[in-house]
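anyone seen this seq b4? input:
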Amino acid sequence: MENNTNLLTSHRFKQAVLTVLTFLAVFLIAKSINEFSHFGQRSATDVQDMITVQGKGEVFAVPDIATFSFGITETGKDVGEANNKASTKNNAAIKYLKDAGIAEKDIQTTGYSANPQYDNTQVMCVKYPCPTQTPKIIGYEVTESVAVKVRNTDKAGDILSGVGSLGVTNISGLTFTIDDEDSIRAEARSKAIADAREKADVLAKELGVRIDKVSSFSEDGGGVAYPVFAMQSKAMDMAGNAAVAPEIAKGQNKITVGVNVTYRIK
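predicted toks r here
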């Protein structure tokens, strides 16, 4: 009788333990499912405990590189003749640039084309049907274009004048840039971050909270404002004298960086 009682008691104990374990397993599974479903989501309280501000930084710098381009266009009865004429002028211009101290790496051919020229004279048709008129090739036109980078900007005017005196067809696109723009942009970025923090401190004081740490950061695309330059010259004066070097004002470039910073507050 006593053995039966002990067996019954042991059986009930095992059932109780199994029930408790089953309950705990169900509880843990339910909790895990709930946490997984909210993984990566912010609560409303988290969102309310942040402020976002914008900062802006500007840096002015004197350009240290000038760039321009020139073109040469020549014609001939065939491609060879037109090409020889263009190459002669192009070689003379490149030699002048190198003699002026321009490195070979800063002289780049950016375009070359050779196109036929047609006689588009129309023959009057007096009898129908009019014969088909095939345009006649009367020659060829060769065009070469070259881009130049001048690292001594003080010499840009003299170099423009010198190239212009060699019979090139067109000189254009003079712009001033900064060689190490990344360092200038980094300086502007630091100013933008400091500006954002200053705004955040003021806002936090007005709200009666304290800045904790940065939650997120993003940078807006900045830009360089190129100055307007002045060129006051002619390739030749009225008396046919040598070209006068243009007066060029390189001014300053402005680099602007904007940032968006989100701070946690407490």
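The radius of gyration is 39 Å. The first strand starts at residue 50 and ends at 61. kinda curious what u guys think
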